[in-house]
Amino acid sequence: MAYQDEINYREQLNHQVYQGKKLTKEEIFWLETHCGYSSVLGYPYLDFDIIKIKPNVDYTVRIRLEKLTYQDRVCSVIFVPAKKGKIIADFPVVDYRGRESIGKPIYMLTHDLTIEKNMVEVHYRSELGLLQICFFCEFYDEKLHIKTGGYSSGPKASIVMLREDVEDNKVQYRCNPGLEEFDFDSFVFSVEWEERP
Questions:
Q1: Residues in the chain with pLDDT < 70?
Q2: Interhelix angle for 25-33 vs 3-18, to 10°?
Q3: 78 near 132, Cβ under 8 Å?
Q4: Positive or negative CA dihedral for 71, 63, 137, 159?
Q5: N or C: which end of the chain has fewer CB within 10 A?
Q6: Which residues make Cβ contacts (< 8 Å) with residue 33, sequence separation at least 6?
């Protein structure tokens, strides 16, 4: 399927949801396992990316901060598409209910990357051979006059990223964190993966 066809199909499915129609399991699976390109900006602007790896293989995934000049909070996010696999961290993680765990399989990891803590490493395994990448950022909403936040996979059209393949097993993401004027150099991170022995 071509990029524009994927964008159009995703818009069609989202429109069905907005109208209150229920999607089939196959349609939901497609939404979760294909790249999300910006419906406003189109290709190559990504709401979220899908990296293809070998299915049912254990990987070490490293997310590294490459550049940060954005003043508010920004986080890298990795996600197991369709929840078919697991992420295991050897450091404390906190779920949305505030419960902390170490080494427990999870499906999503949002991690603050800072100058001081510029890299995170996790164990990753996908039954489908897919790894989803997006990011979260805080920003000031001019209309509401409040500081808020959002994921690149969310509805705010300006929160997007650009992908650059660095090596066969390394991708770099240049992100526009909530800024309407577009600044893809204020938050840059890379994702690298290698098979575990």
A1: 1
A2: 130
A3: yes
A4: positive
A5: C
A6: 50, 81, 82, 128, 130
